[in-house]
Structures are given as C-alpha cells and as structure tokens.
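The protein record filed here:
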Amino acid sequence: MVSWANQGNDIIRIPTLVIAIAAAAAVGVITAIVIMHPYLSLDATAERDVQATNLGPLTLTFPFLSWLGGPGGIPMQVVVILLVLLLNRRAWVLALAALTGGLWYLIVVNLVNRPRPAVGQVLRVTEHPGSTSFPSGHLIFITISAGILMLCIGYRYLPRWARPIGWAVVAGIVLAVGLDRIYVGAHWPSDVLAGLLIAIAWLGLVVSVKRVSDRAFGIKHDDRPPVRLAS
C-alpha cells in the first residue's frame, strides 16, 4: 500500500478553510431566511435600536465610509493594490485573488433582490442608494480591502505581538462600516451580517490555498515531489 505523506497539508491550510466553510454556510442560512421572509421583525427592532443610540463622534466618519464603499470603492481597491505592490510585491496574487471576492456581491444581490428599509419601518432613512438591500456591498468591499492590507502588509511588517492589534483595527473599521449602513437606514442588520460573512468566507478560502498565500507570508515551498511511504 502507498500513501502520500502530508500531501493535503502541503496544499491547504485547514483552519482557515474551516472558517471559510462555516462562514459560507452561515451566509447560506441567512440568505434562505431572507428569501422566504424579506421583512424580519428582529431586523427592524435591531435597526431602530441602533438608530436610537447616540453614537457620538463616530457618526462624523459615516459620510466618508459611505463614499468609500460606494463611489470610492474603485479608488480604494486601486490604492490597496498599489500599496501591496510597493510594500510586499510577492503578495500581489493573494491581493488580486481576494479582491475578486467582490463579485459575490453582484451574484447574491441579484439573486435575493431584497427591498431596502423604508420610512415607517425604521426611525430614519437618510441615504437612498440604488440596487437592492441584501447583502451589504460596503461590508464586502471594505472588509476584503482591510483584510488584504493586514494579510499582505501587516503580516510582513508587524511583529507577532502587534498582529492582534492590527486585526483589532480592522475589526474596528468593519464595525464602524456596519453601524454606518444601519444608522443611515441603507441596510438591514442581516444585510450587514451577510456582507461581513461573505468577506470572511472568501478571505478564508483564498488564504487556505497555500500556493496563493504562503508567498505573501514569506513561506517557501519545497517543489520536490512528495515522498511515498511503502508498506
């Protein structure tokens, strides 16, 4: 009998693949619920609660975040690619592969076609974007872009002890974007959650492919064929 030693582990990073699968499964569940019930009372209650909360100076960032995930999306992605090419050129494959995750927004938004929050359902609707509500494209694009910067640049220049701080910054940005989309009445909370999970699922999948991510992390591969163990 012949087996291949550690062949699977040489191709796939199992923990990140598990995260990707779990996030994708959660997106599937939320999508099914939203298709069957476009209006969810829990969504409306959560949205009104967020809108009734005084978010203080955080609201000053909302116009910029709204622009960044909308008209500013393409410039943002161009800047991300340029920074990766300038600061960690070997990570360009990972960056490009991760950015293609934005295509999932086009697929899902046309599949679900969910109406956005309307006046009377929530406390305020101060932003009226086009298209439909599910999922939040802002969460997908900004989460992926921030994740790319952390994976491609943060992991090269930050010491190991500082990486959790880097991820905390990414989480803070993502949280602010999510609150923005709910606060202005552009999205339901479930739209925001689905957008975040789509971004996590795609980033996890891309990072799980070692031939794509290891080069960005400075991990070298031994291109020799795997050793066969005979018994």
Summary: Residues 1-8, 223-231 have pLDDT under 50 and may be disordered. The chain has one domain: 9-36+61-221. The beta strands are 2-4, 228-230. Residues 9-36+61-221 form one domain.
